[in-house]
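User: Teach me something about this protein's shape.
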Amino acid sequence: MIRLQDQFPPPKFKPLIKRFGRPASITMLDIGLANGSAPLARKWFPNCHYHGADIVESHISPSDRSLLDAFYLVGPDGIQGYDAIADESFDAIILNHVLEHLVNPLDLLITVSAKLKPGGIIFAAFPSPTSLRLPSGSGTLHFCDDPTHVTMIDIVAVVNCLLRRDIKIIYAGPTRDWLRIAIGAIILPWAFVRRLLTGQWQARGLWYVLGFEDSVVGIKRSKL
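Assistant: First, the predicted structure itself:
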């Protein structure tokens, strides 16, 4: 099956491609790894040094694990364990749907922002307040569809936290991926029909057109 993310970069990679180009020999830290993250990183950044961090390692397949240059096992609170990483180590840090799983998400932002090099980029994505108004659906359409979501992220709080870490914000708001929004608009009528026939919503393909996700992108200011 052909996946959209195999043909067009996922939203989390677009700011990195814009910043560094492709291919780029950047050092990247991907926090909260999901299966499939490593092959995608290698596809879109074949020359990168790809590091991952998570509270468990067992969910990462052996093939994905082999694509990591380094893996950091962090504490169950998602925050402890980054002392093994030197400050200013990474050109890019990705927190793709990580913060909403933590009780103290801003503590993680404070911790990992120190690991970003001057001129480096940080990307964070998380469910928006709009997700609380969406219907429940398989694949997570309403914020509470995922029982591991424990914190509704305040985008202003994320921005302020990064600003205090000397990070310039270049985007904050609903994730704008126009191709995926257009595809979602095509899928949406069929999702209504499926809902009428099966009694269930399917989240696949609808996140961006329905505004499920917010994201923040920032660049760490260079030292004078």
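Now, about its shape. The first strand starts at residue 27 and ends at 31. The mean pLDDT is 93. If you'd like, I can walk through any region in more detail.
User: That's plenty for now, thanks!
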